[in-house]
Amino acid sequence: MAKPSVYVTREINKEALAVLADTCEVTFWPGPDPVPRSELLKNIAHKDALLCMLTDKIDAEVLQCAKQLKVIATMSVGYDHLDLKEIKKHEIKVGYTPGILTHATAELTVALLLATSRRLFEANAAARNGGWQAWSPFWMTGPGLEGATVGIAGFGRIGQEVAKRLIPFQIKKLIYFNRSQKPEAESTMGAVRVTFDELLQQSDFLVVCCALTSDTVGMFDKAAFHKMKKTAIFVNTSRGGLVDQDELVKALQEERIAGAGLDVMTPEPLPLDHPLFKLKNCVIMPHIASAAVQTRAGMAMLSVENIVAGLKGEKMPSELTL
Ligand code: DGY
C-alpha cells in the first residue's frame, strides 16, 4: 500500500524527518526562508498531511488546493496563522505544540525583561563605543525587580512559568489578568487576579503572555498605554498583533512608559527602518523565545508524532479541539 504523503514547509531536524519518513512519503521546502506561497500552493495538492510553521498562512486559498489533506500539524503553540473555521469545514485535524516550549519561552521572557529594564544592550554598546567614561552614580540605571509589582496578561502555562521565575527576585506583588481564575496559582504563588485596567495601572513590569485571538487583537492600544505607569516596562513574547504598534512607538517616544522588550512584532521581520529600531528604550529580539536547541527539536518531533497519529486516524498527542 502506498505511504501517505506529507509536505513539510521547512527543513527540520534529521531525527524528526526520519521518524516521519518511516511511515510517510516526505517532501519538504529546503530553503532557510519560509516557503514561497506559490510553492506551498503547488506542493500541497495531492498531499495527505502538512507540517507547517507559524510563518505559513493556512487559509481558504491553501485549502482549496489541498484536495486530499486530512491532517495539519503546526510546529508552534500559537495557531493564529491557521484559519480554523475553514479548516473545520474541510474536516481536517490540527495538531500543535503546547507545553513543550513553555520553559524555553518563560526563560527568554525573563531574559528580555532584564535586558530591557537594566538596559543591557544600551550599556554594552556604550562600553564598546567609548560611551563608558568612568563609573558614574546614576548612569545606565533602570528599575529593579525587587519590591516591584509584576503584572501578567494571560496566565496560562507560559504566564505562570514566567511568574515562577520572577518571584525569587523578591517582587512585592504578582497580579494577573486572565479570562478565568487560577485558584491553584493564587494559593501557591500568591497571585492576585485583577481587571485589565488594574493590571495596566499597577504593574511596574507588564508581561504579555496571552494568545492572539479576535478578542485579544490590539488590546494594548492608545488607552492602555495611557493608563500604564510612566516607569513601567512592557514585555511581549506572545504575538505582535496584541499590540497597537504605532501607539507603542508613541508611548516610548513620549516616554509615557519607560521601556519595551519585544520578541514579537508586526510585521516580522520588522523592517530595518522601523521607528522601534530607533528607540533606545526598546529591545527587539527576532521571535526567538522558544529557540532552545532541545525545545525546537522537541517541537519538531511532537509535530511529526501529531501527523503520524492523525494519519492513522488515532488521537494526536497534541490535538487542537476545533
Ligand atoms: C509559538 O510556538 O507559537 C512561538 O511563538 C514560537 O515558538
UniProtKB/TrEMBL annotation:
Keyword Cytoplasm set for record: no
Keyword annotations from UniProtKB, A to Z: Oxidoreductase
Source species, domain of life: Eukaryota
Keyword Oxidoreductase part of the UniProt annotation: yes
Gene Ontology annotations for the cellular component aspect, listed alphabetically: cytosol
Limits of the D-isomer specific 2-hydroxyacid dehydrogenase NAD-binding domain: 110-289
Pfam families with a match to the protein in the record: 2-Hacid_dh (PF00389), 2-Hacid_dh_C (PF02826)
Domain D-isomer specific 2-hydroxyacid dehydrogenase catalytic: 6-319
Protein family membership: Belongs to the D-isomer specific 2-hydroxyacid dehydrogenase family.
Record protein name field: Glyoxylate reductase/hydroxypyruvate reductase
Species of the source: Zophobas morio
